[in-house]
Amino acid sequence: MSDDEAEDIEEEEGVYLGEYEGGRNERDERHGYGKAILPNGDAYDGMYENGKRHGPGIYRFKNGARYDGVYYDGKKHGKGTFYYPDGSVYEGLWVENQRNGVGKYTYVNGDVYEGEWRDHLRHGQGSYTFAASKLRYEGTWKEGKMDGFGELIHESHKYIGFWKDGMKFGFSSSLRKNVLLRGICLEEKTIRASALNIWRWFAACDIMEFYAPQCYKRY
C-alpha cells in the first residue's frame, strides 16, 4: 500500500452488530473494555465509550492489516501504529482516521519517511531516505511532494536548493567533495532515486559555475 491511499478504515459497529463480549452501559451500548468480531471478519480488542471505539485498542483487519493505538469517538485519533498488509508500517499521530502530525512511515521497499503529515500526505518538514540508493531528502513537503527548500544528500555530495511539485526549481547549489556548483534550474524531469541522476539533473540548469576548492569551505 502506498502512503496516499486510504484503505485503512474500520467497519462501523452497532449495538448488536457482529459478535461482542464485554461491558455495556445503561443503554446497552458497548462501553468499557470489550472484544468484537465484526460481520466482515475484522476484529477489535480494546476500549469502548457509548457504543464507539474510544481509548486504546487493537483493530485487526481480515486482510492482515492491524492498527494498535488510540481511538476517539470511533476513529483513529492520537498516537498509533498501523501495519499495512503489504508490510509497510506507519508510527505516529492520527486525526480522525488520517495521518496528521508527526509520524514515521517505513515502506515495503525499505524507504523511510520521518516528519510531518497532513490528511494522509507528507506535508511540512520531513526527511525521506531511499533505501536502494542511500539518498536522503531533508526539507519541505507539500501534499505528498517535495516543495520548498530542501537538501538531497548522498555521502560525498549534496544538492541544496528549492523544489516545486516534486522537481528542482529556482536557485540551487551542489557540493561534491571540493567543488561547488551553483545555478538556476528552470525545469527538470521527475526526481529519481539514483545517486548518478543528481549530476544528470544539472544538465537542465543554467548559469552553472565552478568554484575553487577553498570556496567549498565557505558554503
Provide structural commentary.
This protein is mainly beta and 219 residues long. It has two domains: 1-121, Histone H3 K4-specific methyltransferase SET7/9 N-terminal domain (Single Sheet), CATH 2.20.110.10; 130-219, Histone H3 K4-specific methyltransferase SET7/9 N-terminal domain (Single Sheet). The protein is built from two helices and 16 strands. The protein has helices at 197-201, 213-216; strands at residues 19-24, 30-37, 43-49, 52-60, 66-72, 75-83, 89-95, 98-106, 112-118, 121-129, 136-142, 145-154, 157-164, 167-176, 179-185, 205-210. The protein has a 16-stranded antiparallel beta sheet with strand order 1-2-3-4-5-6-7-8-9-10-11-12-13-14-15-16. Strand 11 and strand 12 (145-154) form a beta hairpin. The longest helix is centred in the C-terminal third of the chain and has 5 residues, at 197-201.
Q: Could you name the key traits of this structure?
A:
single chain, 219 residues, mainly beta, Histone H3 K4-specific methyltransferase SET7/9 N-terminal domain, 2 helices, 58% strand, disordered C terminus
Please write out the topology.
Elements: E1 19-24, E2 30-37, E3 43-49, E4 52-60, E5 66-72, E6 75-83, E7 89-95, E8 98-106, E9 112-118, E10 121-129, E11 136-142, E12 145-154, E13 157-164, E14 167-176, E15 179-185, H1 197-201, E16 205-210, H2 213-216
Antiparallel strand pairs: 1-2, 2-3, 3-4, 4-5, 5-6, 6-7, 7-8, 8-9, 9-10, 10-11, 11-12, 12-13, 13-14, 14-15, 15-16
Keywords: Repeat
Pfam families: MORN
Biased composition (Basic and acidic residues): 21-32
